[in-house]
């Protein structure tokens, strides 16, 4: 049984032991070790989260090992020091830190759930802390009788007032998740606050000692340092997807503030002081934990200008400064006066009034939780429409059948959802429904007989301000069109005078600058004098083609840009499926449905779709990894239906090639019914980042990519009517989409003939002679590094002409 010294245990020998220096020396050495180890742990937490979330490398999920190793490396020197140190006060402080090292170890199982499963992680952490407190209070039951005083409402109100002030940056620049997320965060932070109140305030003086004017400040400052170390340990141990550095810096100055609350003016440690210090710690943890989604701290999502990382850094810096002010205020308050209930009440009303005012008028009020995507068991089989020769009639038949299948199979579940007042979005291209659901509701959905599975559909929380529009650094005169020359596109334009006329490209991406000089004339909406059926933005609701990030403007330029595109005569329609860099099944399907059967911007895809106005060729410079909610088969019904409808679907393979073979792993690039494209450089070598096959994620062993195209240092259009150079398989896919447009323009009888078009591309590709990894034999054609080779626009178009 653990022990804590009380007045009845103190002897003259004990009093002599308090005067030694070994305890101070031990605490100094332990402090250095804790600070060093915590910094290393925070860096490790952040790095491993970034690597796993980004997904390019096959890296084992060892997140659970971090708190385990961290806690053990803390525990060993602490338990040794506790045995060696004789001074009771120092011994008590070391013991308190040892308790937290044990808690760090106990947090290890909370890292086992999926990296995006914050709710399960938080629930496990809450259970761990509650269990820890129960055991600890049982161990310390004898010492509880020595705790002095009764709870004081005035002290509680002062602590809550200070806690409110700490929330200023978070309510201004953060946003809440779902109501359930907020509840979990509150419960977890309340539990952590209890840990602070119960464990860390340790008696700075023995019962027989009478604190002096000189010793009282020393004792409280010493206690404050121990609480600071404890907050550092908790921040690193409770880290959720790399948010530990935010938690740690936000609460770091609160150690001394908690000590100022915990100790009375005569230097004694009281019950109401413990409670007040716990309340302050609660809010120190709560604001950043509830107002920042840790998943969104991934640099893949939030590294850009105006993105969440920028706000997180700014909020953390201001939170640190406010915590310092709170610390100074509480120290001054304890020296100047003992705040009465009236003062405390006024402080409480003013501080919380300020917080709610800022939140409602300048913040992002409301709850912004994650959605789920319900995949129905009844998926439509459209192959029976393949014999329809006319591609437009075939597309109409496919659309009507998909809608009918979804409406009939969703009838019961929609009625059930309607009866509960649930808001949802139905889909037909993949028979499914997207909606908000807490864990209990999600379990009910998954248990239904008409439901196949329930997937995550993550939603990014809103930002405080609109992200600034990207801008390139090049002018048109700076552009090197080597990529068009390499694949023979310039030769097609100059010699064969074929430009892609009569073909409609469907562009689903970050958006498009509709009035860019390269793209304005080819936007079908400008020709139709309407944006309905030509532009759809499920992300931001824009009514005219707009692009914030630039990715979509660049990729579309490579397809049909006036001077930088493969097929400048083609027309385009557009959709925003990736307004910021974290999509979900719903957003991707919103755009795929729009491309199959465009509808008015405020229309119903089920009722208002116009298949005859749909795109002929789809460029998809995106992939949907597991962190976006997708499994291997999520879009399989969609791409099968699109192929049957005569839509040529081009997909970039992804940029995970540094991970080696079998890195084509995200849908839709993995599917047989899409044409997947890898990237080569100017020298004809495969780009190191370009993902390679085989496809193992679905067990098929399928060869991917199907073909390769230029994807390194590609110059193309960019927002603000500029140009920019970019690299990625995202830049390679558009070249192939443009080549197909040239082929179909040269021979319109090929429109909708997917297998024949693919065969022409494959047979007329140039042989790949560049380097290949050891796991691929490039002499085999097709192979998992280059597919059938490098796309050749000139030969493919000539073959298309020959088939007229």
How would you describe this protein?
By secondary structure, the chain is an alpha/beta fold. It has two domains: 352 residues, no CATH class; 282 residues, Peptidase S8/S53 domain (Rossmann fold). Helix content is 48%, strand content 8%. The chain contains 28 helices and 13 strands. The strands form three sheets. It has a seven-stranded parallel β-sheet with strand order 6-7-5-8-9-10-11, sandwiched between helices. It has a four-stranded antiparallel β-sheet with strand order 2-3-1-4, with helices on both faces. It has a two-stranded antiparallel sheet with strand order 12-13. A hairpin with a 3-residue loop joins β12 and β13. α2 packs parallel to α4. The chain is elongated. The termini are far apart. The N terminus is likely disordered.
Count the E strands.
Answer: 13
User: How much helix, percentage-wise, in residues?
Assistant: 40-55%
Overall body shape: elongated
How many domains make up the 3D coordinates?
A: 2
Strands ordered across the widest β-sheet: 6-7-5-8-9-10-11
Average predicted confidence as pLDDT: 92
The profile of the biggest β sheet is:
7 strands, parallel
User: What is the rounded distance between the termini?
Assistant: 91 Å
Q: What's the helix count? A: 28
Kindly name the structural category.
alpha/beta
Calculate Rg over CA atoms.
31 Å
How large is the share of residues in beta strands? 5-15%
Low-confidence stretches: 1-17, 204-216
């Amino acid at each position: 049984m653990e022990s804590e010294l009380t007045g009845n245990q103190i002897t003259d020998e004990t009093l002599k032991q308090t005067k030694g220096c070994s305890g101070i020396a031990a605490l100094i050495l332990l402090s250095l070790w804790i600070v060093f180890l915590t910094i290393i742990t925070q860096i490790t937490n952040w790095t491993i989260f970034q690597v796993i979330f980004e997904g390019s490398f096959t890296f084992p999920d060892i997140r659970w090992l971090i708190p385990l190793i961290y806690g053990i490396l803390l525990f060993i020197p602490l338990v040794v020091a506790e045995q060696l140190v004789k001074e009771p006060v120092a011994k008590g402080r070391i013991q308190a830190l040892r308790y937290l090292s044990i808690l760090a170890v106990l947090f290890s199982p909370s890292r086992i759930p999926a990296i995006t499963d914050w709710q399960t992680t938080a629930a496990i952490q809450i259970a761990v802390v509650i269990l820890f407190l129960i055991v600890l209070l049982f161990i310390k039951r004898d010492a509880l009788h020595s705790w002095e005083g009764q709870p004081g409402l005035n002290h509680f109100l002062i602590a809550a007032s200070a806690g409110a002030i700490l929330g200023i940056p978070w309510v201004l620049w953060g946003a809440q998740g779902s109501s359930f997320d907020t509840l979990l965060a509150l419960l977890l932070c309340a539990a952590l606050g209890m840990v602070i109140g119960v464990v860390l305030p340790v008696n700075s003086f023995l019962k027989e000692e009478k604190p002096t004017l000189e010793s009282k400040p020393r004792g409280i400052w010493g206690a404050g340092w121990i609480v600071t170390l404890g907050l550092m340990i908790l921040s690193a141990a409770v880290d959720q997807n790399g948010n530990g550095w935010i938690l740690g810096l936000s609460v770091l100055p609160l150690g001394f503030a908690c000590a100022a609350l915990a100790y009375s003016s005569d230097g004694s440690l009281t019950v109401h002081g413990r409670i007040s210090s716990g309340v302050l710690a609660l809010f120190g943890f709560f604001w950043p934990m509830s107002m920042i989604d840790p998943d969104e701290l991934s640099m893949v999502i939030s590294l850009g200008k105006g993105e969440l990382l920028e706000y997180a850094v700014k909020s953390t810096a201001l939170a640190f400064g406010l915590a310092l002010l709170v610390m100074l205020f509480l120290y001054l308050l304890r020296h100047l006066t003992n705040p009465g209930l009236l003062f405390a009440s006024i402080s409480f009303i003013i501080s919380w009034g300020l917080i709610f005012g800022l939140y409602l008028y300048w913040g992002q009020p409301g709850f912004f939780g994650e959605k789920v995507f319900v995949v129905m068991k009844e998926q439509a089989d459209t192959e029976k429409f393949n014999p329809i020769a006319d591609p437009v009639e075939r597309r109409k038949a496919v659309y009507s059948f998909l809608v009918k299948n979804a409406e009939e199979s969703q009838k019961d579940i929609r009625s059930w959802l309607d009866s509960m007042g649930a808001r949802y979005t139905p889909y037909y291209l993949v028979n499914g429904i997207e909606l908000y659901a807490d864990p209990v509701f999600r379990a009910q959905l998954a248990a239904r007989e008409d439901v196949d599975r329930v997937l995550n559909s993550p939603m990014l929380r809103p930002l405080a301000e609109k992200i600034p529009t990207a801008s390139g650094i090049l002018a048109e005169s700076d552009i090197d069109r080597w990529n068009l020359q390499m694949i023979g596109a310039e030769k097609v334009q100059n010699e064969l005078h074929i430009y892609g006329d009569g073909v409609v490209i469907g562009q689903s991406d970050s958006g498009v600058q509709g009035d860019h000089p390269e793209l304005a004339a080819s936007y079908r909406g400008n020709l139709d004098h309407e944006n309905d059926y030509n532009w759809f933005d499920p992300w931001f609701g824009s009514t005219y083609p707009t692009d914030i990030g630039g990715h979509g403007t660049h990729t579309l330029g490579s397809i049909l840009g006036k001077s930088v595109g493969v097929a400048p005569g083609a027309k385009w329609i557009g959709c925003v499926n990736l307004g910021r860099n974290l999509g979900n099944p719903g957003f991707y399907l919103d755009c795929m449905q729009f491309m199959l059967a465009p509808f008015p911007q405020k229309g119903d895809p089920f009722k208002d779709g116009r298949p005859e106005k749909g795109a002929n060729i789809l460029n998809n410079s995106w992939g949907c990894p597991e962190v976006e909610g997708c499994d291997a088969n999520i879009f399989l019904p969609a791409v099968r239906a699109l192929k049957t409808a005569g839509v040529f679907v081009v997909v970039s393979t992804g940029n995970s090639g540094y991970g080696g073979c079998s890195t084509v792993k995200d849908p839709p690039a993995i599917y047989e019914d899409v044409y997947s494209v890898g990237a080569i450089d100017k020298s004809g070598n495969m780009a190191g980042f370009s993902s390679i096959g085989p496809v193992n994620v679905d067990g098929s062993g399928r060869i991917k990519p199907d073909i390769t195209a230029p994807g390194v240092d590609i110059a193309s259009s960019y927002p603000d009517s500029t140009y920019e150079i970019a690299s990625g398989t995202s830049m390679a896919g558009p070249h192939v989409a443009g080549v197909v447009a040239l082929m179909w323009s040269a021979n319109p009888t090929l429109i909708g003939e997917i297998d024949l078009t693919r065969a022409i591309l494959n047979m007329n590709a140039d042989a790949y002679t560049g380097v290949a990894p050891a796991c691929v034999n490039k002499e085999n054609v097709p192979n998992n590094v280059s597919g059938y080779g490098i796309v050749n626009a000139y030969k493919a178009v000539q073959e298309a002409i020959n088939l007229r």
